[in-house]
């Protein structure tokens, strides 16, 4: 029995029951694939269900405000995915008259869609024999064939795509693609794979050569940098709070936050006062401030670690601008770092 047939047979017996596997609607399949980019199924499933309930059609998603979309996405991270999802929904709804692109090449033209996502949608929704290559697929192929080419190198990306395309079952591309991804997620796991009961064990080079823990090979990641954040949680006498929308092209673009001052190290109260935050945030307004957390709250992103302090600023007058009612703060989309603080802090104590 060949590689692809073995995988499809395994998949038929072991696949998880997931809502996006019970439909051929390309909108739902696209939605699931965008949510599951860099997100595990157990984390992404509640978000998928929430999006389907809130936006049952691509027109519903297109007509929503970006703020609504970002708020529903809150907690998933990589917020550019949500912004691209929303932009593509508008394109499909208004430019393509609600007609989802039907080929790999056309799907790949959607904002935020690369080779993997286009391959998944084209094969699952439209039965196009375009092989997927994600982290699970890299792992299965590198171990089974004993390939030590770095999967995040230009050479490796090309080689694994070529191999995957050669192996795909052209009569059952949807089943094959889902099978190899599921196999990597459940059977050929990153750590402690189930080799003793693996249907592919007889042909697995990594198992025969005792290289399971050495494959796949990845080039070293970019060095993680540290940043030091100081958030000013400014609340006035009328229970308004300073809240501003992040601008620019950063990862938290268009999410809301408290006024932020970055520093080159973690600050104590005296050092913080020397920053002159009064002139930068509050001008000619009387206030008192206290440090909420002595130890930095460390928020880890893929490329940087944010060492954060929250400074509670009690304003003696009504805030002049950029204010929102404290009771409405949970209506705004915020980064997880801010959301966790809002949930933790007792604003009633101010």
Automatic annotation (TrEMBL):
Keywords for this entry?
A: 4Fe-4S, DNA damage, DNA repair, Glycosidase, Hydrolase, Iron, Iron-sulfur, Metal-binding
Residue ranges occupied by any HhH-GPD domain in the UniProt entry: 35-186
What Pfam families is this protein classified in? HHH, HhH-GPD, NUDIX_4
What domain of life is recorded for the organism?
Answer: Bacteria
Q: What class of enzyme is it?
A: hydrolase
Cofactor(s) for this UniProt protein: [4Fe-4S] cluster
EC number(s): the record gives 3.2.2.31
Q: Which CDD domains match?
A: ENDO3c (cd00056), NUDIX_DNA_Glycosylase_C-MutY (cd03431)
On cofactor binding, the record's note says:
Binds 1 [4Fe-4S] cluster.
Q: Which reaction does it catalyse?
A: Hydrolyzes free adenine bases from 7,8-dihydro-8-oxoguanine:adenine mismatched double-stranded DNA, leaving an apurinic site
Membership in a protein family: Belongs to the Nth/MutY family.
The role this protein plays is:
Adenine glycosylase active on G-A mispairs. MutY also corrects error-prone DNA synthesis past GO lesions which are due to the oxidatively damaged form of guanine: 7,8-dihydro-8-oxoguanine (8-oxo-dGTP).
Protein name (Swiss-Prot/TrEMBL) = Adenine DNA glycosylase
Gene that this polypeptide is encoded by: mutY
């Amino acid at each position: 029995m060949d590689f692809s047939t073995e995988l499809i047979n395994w998949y038929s017996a072991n696949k998880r029951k997931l809502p996006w596997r019970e439909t051929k609607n390309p909108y739902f399949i696209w939605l699931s694939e965008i949510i599951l980019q860099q997100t595990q199924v157990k984390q992404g499933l509640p978000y998928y269900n929430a999006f389907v309930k809130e936006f049952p059609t691509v027109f519903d998603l297109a007509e929503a405000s970006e703020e609504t979309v970002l708020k529903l996405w809150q907690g998933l991270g990589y917020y550019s995915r949500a912004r691209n999802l929303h932009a593509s929904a508008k394109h499909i709804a208004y430019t393509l008259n609600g007609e989802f692109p039907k080929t790999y090449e056309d799907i790949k033209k959607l904002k935020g869609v690369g080779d993997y996502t286009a391959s998944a949608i084209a094969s699952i929704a439209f039965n196009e024999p375009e092989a997927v290559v994600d982290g699970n697929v890299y792992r299965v192929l590198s171990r089974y064939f004993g390939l030590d080419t770095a999967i995040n190198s230009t050479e490796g990306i090309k080689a694994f795509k070529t191999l995957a395309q050669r192996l795909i079952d052209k009569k059952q591309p949807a089943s094959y693609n889902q099978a190899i991804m599921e196999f990597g997620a459940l059977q050929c796991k990153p750590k402690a794979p189930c080799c003793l009961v693996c249907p592919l064990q007889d042909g697995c080079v990594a198992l025969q050569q005792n290289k399971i823990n050495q494959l796949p090979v990845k080039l070293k990641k970019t060095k993680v940098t540290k940043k030091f954040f100081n958030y000013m949680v400014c609340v006035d006498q009328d229970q308004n709070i300073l809240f501003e929308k992040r601008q620019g092209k950063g990862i938290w673009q268009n999410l809301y936050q408290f006024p932020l001052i970055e520093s080159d190290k973690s600050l104590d109260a005296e050092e913080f006062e020397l920053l002159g935050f009064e002139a930068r945030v509050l001008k000619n307004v009387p206030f008192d401030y206290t440090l909420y957390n002595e130890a930095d709250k460390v928020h880890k992103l893929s490329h940087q670690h944010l060492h954060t302090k929250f400074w509670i600023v009690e304003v003696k007058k009504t805030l002049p601008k950029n204010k929102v009612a404290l009771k409405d703060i949970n209506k705004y989309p915020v980064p997880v770092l801010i959301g966790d603080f809002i949930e933790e802090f007792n604003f009633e104590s101010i």
